[in-house]
Model the fold of this input.
Amino acid sequence: MAAAVTDKGRKRPSNEDAYGLSIEHGAYLVCDGMGGAAAGEIASALAVEEAMRVLTARLSDESASPRMAAEEAVFAANEAIFGRAQRNPRLAGMGTTLVGLLVRERRLWVVNIGDSRCYRLRNRSLQQLTDDHSLVEEQVRMGRMTHSEALRSPLRNVITRALGTQNSVTPDIIELEAEPGDLYMLCSDGLTRELNDDLIESLLGLDLPVESLCARLVNAAKKAGGHDNITCLLVRAEG
Ligand code: CA
Done:
């Protein structure tokens, strides 16, 4: 079971987030674009389109490696965005985050570039599975900044890895084993900046279908301020 909701929030004029999902292929993506004018929207839409095109083609073959499919999808999406930006000066510097989840039976692959996130709720306990590629989170991991300093830092929007801004990029890829009933969430920072982990954990623990949970989380982030675009994609492992 899987569902997704995206919303432009209450302050931004447009939605630069995008998502893709194919339950049939076990491929799920959330992208959060950046760049002036319409560039952010173009970058995230291109990333989802290119990455889903490669993933659905590769994953139709059950003997194909999901890890290699993920690497190929990231490569293709990066080329598409970087190439478009090179050809059109108005799009120069555009890029996007990408967080993805690939599912094959009980095996999972989490793919990450940037500061969108993947979380898992297991036995009512929430865990963030991805590391943010952001300046402040890198400082936190090195012990040079506290978590609360990171949340308030004027540099909190600076990401250190993005799709499409350079001619190559390496994603983090984590391989995991799912347990029945696990709930996986892919989201943009418009959700996690408004809602703390305790609140996310309690909302995800509600006994509701994934469609309703997505709507609740996005509405909670809007009520909390909705300063940025908000995207929530949920995948529940079959029991
Ligand atoms: Ca964002």
Observations:
- The two ends are 11 Å apart (CA to CA).
